[in-house]
Amino acid sequence: MLSRRAFLQWALSVSLSATAWAEGMPPADQGESRLVRPAEVAMPRVAILDWGLTEMALTLGIVPVGIAAPDWYRRLFAAPVLPSRVQDVGLLFQPNFETLKALNLDAIIITPAHGLLRDALTGIAPLVTLGDWGGRPLAKIERDTRLMARTFGREAEAAVLLAQSAQRLAQARAQLAPLRGTEVFLATVADVLHLQLQTSGGLFDDVTGRLGLKNAWRGGGNGWGEALVELQQIAAAKQARLVSLGKTGGVPPEADTPLWRSLPLTQRNNIVPMPAGLSSTGALLTAVRFAEALAAGLSRAGELRHV
């Protein structure tokens, strides 16, 4: 286990680097500001209290010893797979402090939203705070991927991940070139009369823009980039496609109701279903999987329209 002094020395340097990144500046010398050097130290024992950051860690080859509500992660995230040995440390904002203490941790990864827990958690292990992704989520996720990688000595893995992700996003954008400017509602069905839409500031909205598409929802949303709306608020949209983000994948069963069949927006041939296991709280892999699924779904739907 790393000494607390060594960790705190690293924590100060990474905090300064994060500030530089936020201001659009390259961080200062990073040579001595890593928590882990693969040739010197084994992978630290880390707990994570956020599912998006759990995804990020796993894509970098960092397997936490514990995360909050792992069963919910497995329900909401199809990839990357969370190993069965990862322990449950409680709820996202109500972790089990005794469990965390027993894990003999080197670090706990949290988000700014865990501010009220900072004092209690600091007494257990040093904290790494990431996940402030509001406004421009995708760019900030890319930034945090670099920060997490440098923290745990995974720069090489991050370089490959970021390069491959950029390439896959570019390929999805190219695939959608004939549909540039198409408007889409990014929706999770709440019930036959209500939809939860992804709005400006959310990850899926950001990815949609990068692909050259437009979010058809012009209204506002909450701090997570979501808005619960009545179907009648968007039913009159004439050209938009309805992208279904259902947790089970496929066309939602509401599409077979008389109401949905009567509206152009919600007819089966206008719905583009996304696969299960895509969470708007995800990180870079989720962004890429969503982009590729959206490109494939819209391209297929466009071809069917011309049959």
TrEMBL record:
The keyword Iron applies. It is found in: Cell envelope. Keywords: Ion transport, Iron, Iron transport, Signal, Transport. Residues 45-302 form the Fe/B12 periplasmic-binding domain. It comes from the Bacteria. InterPro entries: ABC_transptr_periplasmic_BD, Bact_iron-sidero_bind, TAT_signal. Pfam families: Peripla_BP_2. One of its GO terms (cellular component) is outer membrane-bounded periplasmic space. Residues 1-22 form the signal peptide. SUPFAM superfamilies: Helical backbone' metal receptor (SSF53807). The keyword ATP-binding does not apply. One of its GO terms (biological process) is iron coordination entity transport. Belongs to the bacterial solute-binding protein 8 family. This is ABC transporter substrate-binding protein. It comes from Acerihabitans sp. KWT182. The lineage of its organism: Bacteria, Pseudomonadati, Pseudomonadota, Gammaproteobacteria, Enterobacterales.
